[in-house]
Specification:
It is a single chain. The protein has 127 residues and is α+β, with helices and mostly antiparallel strands. The protein has helices spanning 6-18, 21-24, 27-33, 50-58, and strands spanning 34-41, 47-49, 69-79, 82-91, 94-105, 108-119. The chain has a single domain, classed as Nuclear Transport Factor 2, Chain: A (Roll), CATH 3.10.450. 26% of the residues lie in helices and 44% in strands. The longest helix is centred in the N-terminal third of the chain and has 13 residues, at 6-18.
């Protein structure tokens, strides 16, 4: 496998930072990684915007999934200012396929769109 482009490497670095519990608990750090027009479709199907994601993550009573581990992360640079990442995460036995779009802005690469879809290795679950 070839080395990722600098743009893909920057998006991967940003995505991994977003999995860090320290970053997830800081409004300032989150704001620095999320695009002003950020949108997300969460594992529950709920639609999120930047402000509600930040408020939810930093809330004192926010659920803490514990360590999130990422695997099978791949990226492709779609054009000069857009990167698409796909990867899987696992936390407390819950697994999700994830897809992210990262856009280049004046301050740097920011997460523009994210979607997470729960999955199971149970082959009968796909029928």
């Amino acid at each position: 496998m070839s080395e990722p482009t600098p743009a893909v490497a920057a998006a991967i670095e940003g995505e991994l930072r977003l999995l860090d519990p320290v970053v997830r608990a800081s409004a300032d750090l989150l704001a620095g990684l999320l695009h002003p027009e950020f949108r997300e479709i969460g594992t529950s199907g709920r639609l999120w915007d930047r402000d509600t994601v930040i408020a939810s993550l930093i809330s004192h009573d926010a659920p803490r999934p514990g360590p999130l581990t990422a695997s099978r992360m791949r990226g492709v640079q779609l054009c000069s200012d857009l990167v698409h990442l796909t990867f899987d995460t696992e936390a407390k036995g819950l697994r999700s396929h994830r897809s992210s779009l990262w856009r280049l802005t004046e301050p740097g690469w920011r997460l523009y769109f994210h979607q997470a879809t729960p999955f199971s290795d149970d082959a009968s679950a796909e029928i």
